Amino acid sequence: MVGKRPWVENLPISPCATKRAAMLTAIDKIVPKEGGDTGLFDTALAAYQRVQEGWQAGVSNSVVIYTDGKNDNPGGLDVDQVVAKMTKLRDPNRPVRMIIIGMGTAIDREELEAVTKAAGSGGVYIATDPAKIGEIFLEAIASRKGA
């Protein structure tokens, strides 16, 4: 948390092709918040808006979110609110792909899929075995296509 903001940017937006090592380093630094209680939906919306603001033609404008699959943010957005806001923001001429990687066994796939559907494209990938997170990440990234 940064004040009341339920997310931290670990790495600025950058191309995967040139920043792969930095991305892998950033992934290794991800530390789950003790006790959970994460603002998944507020974070998803903020990331989606950020990518939309910097949208570039000819590249895969994407958001990748790692989550325990639960939105625990009292006073924050609920699934219906984030879906409504994201659907309203969606611009088919400037697509943003939303990739959500759920870790663990308490994932609410239906909610996560509602968010990726609201974004217009994307996918939900689940890693129930922590040892498989690297494979899941590569599968998710490989699913992206140019705009």
Describe this structure in words.
It is built from 5 helices and 3 strands; from the N terminus they run H-H-E-H-E-H-E-H. The chain has helices at residues 16-28, 40-53, 79-89, 109-119, 133-142, and strands spanning 62-67, 97-103, 122-127. A 3-stranded parallel sheet has the order 1-2-3, with helices on both faces. Helix 2 (40-53) runs parallel beside helix 3 (79-89) and helix 3 packs parallel to helix 4 (109-119).
Name the descriptors.
single chain; 147 residues; alpha/beta; 5 helices; 3 strands; 40% helix; 13% strand
In one word, what is the shape? globular
Whole-number radius of gyration? 14 Å
The major pleated sheet works out as:
3 strands, parallel
Uncertain regions spanning at least 5 consecutive residues: none
State which percent range the strand residues make up.
Answer: 5-15%
Number of helices: 5
Helix/strand order = HHEHEHEH
**Termini Cα gap:** 32 Å
Global mean pLDDT: 85
Quantity of strands, as a count: 3
Structural class: alpha/beta
Strand order of the largest sheet: 1-2-3
Helical residue percent band: 40-55%
